[in-house]
Amino acid sequence: MTTIATPTQSAPDAKAPDYNPKSDSVVAKRVRSTIFHIVALALVAVVLYPALWMMASSFKPNSEIGGSNTSLWSANFSFDNFVTAMDGIGGVSTMQFFTNSLILAIGAVVGTILSASVSAYAFARINFPGRNIFFGMMIATLLLPFHVVIIPQYIIFQQMGLVDTYVPLLLGKFLAADAFFVFLMVQFMRNLPAELDEAARIDGAGHVRIFSSIMLPLMKPALISTSIFSFIWSWNDFLGPLLYLNTPEKYPLPLALRLFVDQTQSSDYGAMIAMSMLALLPVLVFFLIFQRYIVEGVSTQGLKG
Amino acid sequence: MTQSPTLSRRSTSSTTPLPRKPRQRGADTRAGYTFLLPWLLGFIALTVGPMISSLYLSFTNYNLFEPPKWIGLDNYTTLFQDERFLQSVGVTLSYVVFGTPLKLAAALAIAMLLNSKRRGQGFYRSAFYAPSLIGASVSIAIVWKAIFGDSGPVDQGLSFFGINLGGWVGNPDMTMPMMILLTVWQFGAPMVIFLAGLKQIPGELYEAASMDGAGPVRKFFNITWPMLSPVIFFNLLMETIHAFQIFASAYIISNGEGGPADSTLFYTLYLYLRGFSDFRMGYASAMAWLLVIVVGIITLIFFRTSKSWVHYSGDSK
């Protein structure tokens, strides 16, 4: 991705015997830089090993995964595992699971963007009694373990006959239940100059106009980070679907994977790893495309991965 | 890549609105609540309401099919005689107490290693961050189980060096180190936050310390640590709270049972089993409320003690 300089070769030449302090420090710098890259690359190799192992194993025949075979390379690489994995499980094709995951993730993105941006505008740009109290409560929900609400929520959705539908999984997204995104957008909007609203107000614009034609366009970076993260979180979510979905036809990928693990139980290791790999693929592709947004989003907003 | 963050952490002025005419104020109040409506509805219907009803349920016997029966504090007293509950508390605490500091230490060490103007910054940062994005997924739990499996690659690699631990996944003594390694592996997210914090420390401080003859250790304790303390505090608080809530990885690695010998019976997993396999909803609600109380107390302790070691650059006067 990025070329890494390995200046080992030129280092000895620079150590000329004329004791020029400048060239001496150049040598020291190069040596230090080389050591840095060696250490950093070694760490990268260790950290990425599980991911590389997954990729390599997904192409290997069953007999070569695990056991005494630790090498990543194999002479027998093939797509067989993926062919098996695409067949799906429980009479449902993997394409169906993909579609389900996609519906849930897109629903989550749309819902979060709509509800969080509107609510954040109220917190950041409108002055009304009660605002600070509600803002404090919103921050408190960031720290609240959500397990305290899942049981009553389940009971309510069960009584409404909404278990085994996507409603319980998506309703919260349309009601800005992921407080992190509201917080992120509030922080972003507060940094936009107040003169914008004042000028618009003098021109007679109301809050709806100010929000839709001034704030929204300026909030693009925050909207993009929100979209990326709500997509990935929804894509990886396991507990929500585990609680609410019963029929395999409606399962998103993480649940399908669990079903796969339960039913094949190490009899088809390769296909299991291949399916795990497929389930992560969109996240990895997202990461490669949007790395900068993702990493910047984390460093500025403290977003969790 | 090394651009300074677009959003400064110290968000300066919130929009201090000018004093308005009463009519404008009424309009603002109406507009405020209208815009806030989605969040407010969600807050009441999905957070406050359920919290109150789970508090009520925690004093009842409820199995979803018969109406709840009031039993007072019985659920809470039973909890402390329930060996599996106590086991789940022990498992979760050792995960939080060992996993979180190790993860943050790794994050800080590598952030300091990367905090230079050398080439390849962007690449390293992304590579180290990637596990944070996928680490909590079912896919990675499956992979983790496989590479730590008996005679899996990790076991093979260690036995090459003459270390035989007797397997990880099937060995109750080794499952906790395995779970801790899984969380430490995701050090990238706090690392990126540390890096952003380190970049804000003015280089002159280190130069001045060097002139006074301070070595790297003194520089770390007298400059880096205090200057970074707000970021350390933030990471410590968030990571601790998140660590209490680990679920998917534990569920997958233990086939949803918390085994072997309940060594991966995390708090949330036990809560799930009680609530949604045994349908003991009252009991599970009591567990949920205990978790809220414990996390609340820990948060409070963190904030209280933070005054003695967290320094905000703004309030030095």
What does this structure look like?
The complex is a heterodimer of chains A (305) and B (317). With 305 residues, chain A is mostly helical. Chain A has two domains: 59 residues; 215 residues, MetI-like (MetI-like fold), CATH 1.10.3720.10. Helix content of chain A is 71%, strand content 0%. In chain A, α4 runs parallel beside α7, α4 packs across α8 and α4 runs antiparallel to α11. Chain A is flat, with a radius of gyration of 26 Å. With 317 residues, chain B is an all-alpha fold. Chain B folds into two domains: 55 residues; 234 residues, MetI-like fold (Orthogonal Bundle), CATH 1.10.3720.10. Chain B has 13 helices and two strands; from the N terminus they run αββαααααααααααα. Chain B has a two-stranded antiparallel ribbon. In chain B, a hairpin with a 7-residue loop joins β1 and β2. In chain B, α1 packs across α13. Chain B is globular and about 75 Å long. Chain B starts with 21 loop residues before the first helix and ends in an 8-residue tail after the last helix. The relative contact order of chain B is 0.12. The N terminus of chain B is likely disordered. The chains are: A mainly alpha (305), B mainly alpha (317). Chains A and B meet through α2, α4, α5, α6 and α7 of A and α1, α3, α4, α5 and α6 of B.
